Amino acid sequence: MFSSLSTAVVLSTVFSSVLCTPLSDQVAALRLDPTAVDRVNTLSLDKQFIFDFFNPPAGVTTGAAGHTVTATSGTFPAIVGNGVAMTVGFLGPCGINTPHTHPRATEINFSVNGTLRTGMLAENGARFIVNDLPPGSMTVFPQGSVHFEVNTGCEAAMFVAAFNSEDPGVSSLAQRFFGLPIDIIDATMGGLGIQQVEGLADKIPDNIAVGTDECLKRCNIARPPAQPTAQHQPRVSGNAFPTNTVLSAPVSSQPSAPASSNSTMPTSAPPASSASAVNSTVPASSSA
Ligand SMILES: *[C@@H]1O[C@H](CO)[C@@H](O)[C@H](O)[C@H]1NC(C)=O
Ligand SMILES: *[C@@H]1O[C@H](CO)[C@@H](O)[C@H](O)[C@H]1NC(C)=O
Ligand SMILES: *[C@@H]1O[C@H](CO)[C@@H](O)[C@H](O)[C@H]1NC(C)=O
Ligand SMILES: *[C@@H]1O[C@H](CO)[C@@H](O)[C@H](O)[C@H]1NC(C)=O
């Protein structure tokens, strides 16, 4: 952290107390300031009002197909009190920012130099929205709406997302859902089966993830055999998987599919282009 600033500390001990303050301490001090004027004066260096997305001090989220950089009150103290935040995304060819929501902010999202397919599903009852964003255009994702974005091009693409909260937060749908207790997931999936749920959960890749089969084929990119999965919700006793035996009695009331089937993503995913690689085995017994 602050490695790029460390030379400045050496050059000028006058500023050292400011520069060495951890981000959280700076944010705490700013939150105690009684007025906006005090906040401006608390940040005594002009450069503290700059966040460099190409060389960020923090706020990086990385997956197999790109990364995002986020400037919020957690990574950029000058934002405190201003009610805005920004994310810049660097999507590799076919990279996907997997479905997620922002619990505390509406997002407007500007495509800089690539064509990005966006999908958005607001609350229950709202219709599904899909768009291609060519360079120079933007779209809006209402607060709390589920949305995803795919770079449909064969070159890297950059987007800029602005938020009307300094702490918009992010909830990644797949990671959240599969972080719930195993029996709850199983029940929600109509009694899919514990081992099937485990197979699905194992595969959820970190953001930015490798995108659709259609894009990979068109761009002549091989799907990597595995992607990092460090963004999974940690398992504790309350949401742990049972030890890897055949279904224990209380978990699933249904005689679910035999353990031989190991599907990947749920078939409900709209761009169902993954049929080639996958035996999508939702048991025929899943009558609602
Ligand atoms: C903004 O949209 C692009 C695609 O249009 C997407 O890749 C990106 O994830 C979006 N940004 C955020 C923060 O959701
Ligand atoms: C878009 O901009 C990013 C960041 O500068 C760059 O990495 C990427 O290669 C650019 N893509 C195109 C198609 O110009
Ligand atoms: C499902 O597949 C994953 C990876 O391919 C594997 O780690 C896991 O053990 C499998 N689960 C079952 C129940 O076969
Ligand atoms: C897919 O299912 C078929 C029939 O159930 C089976 O023969 C085949 O081995 C399965 N393929 C994979 C990859 O699991």
Amount of helix? 10-25%
Which architecture of the domain at 21-171 and 271-277 would the CATH scheme give at its second level?
Answer: Sandwich
Strand proportion, as a percent range, falls in 15-25%
Could you state the CATH homologous superfamily of the domain at 21-171 and 271-277?
Answer: Jelly Rolls
The CATH class label of the domain at 21-171 and 271-277 is Mainly Beta
Give the helix tally.
8
CATH topology annotation of the domain at 21-171 and 271-277 = Jelly Rolls
In the sheet with the most strands, the strands line up as 1-2-3-10-5-8
Average pLDDT metric:
81
- Large-scale geometry: globular
Q: Give the ligands present.
A: 2-acetamido-2-deoxy-beta-D-glucopyranose
Order of helices and strands: HHHHEEEEEEEEEEEHHHEH
The description of the largest β-sheet is:
6 strands, antiparallel
Distance between the termini: 51 Å
Task: Round the Cα radius of gyration to an integer and report it.
Answer: 22 Å
Parts with pLDDT < 50 across at least 5 consecutive residues = 1-18, 247-288
In total, how many beta strands? 12
Broad structural category: alpha+beta
GO molecular function: manganese ion binding
Main location: secreted
Signal peptide: 1-20
GO cellular component, one term: extracellular region
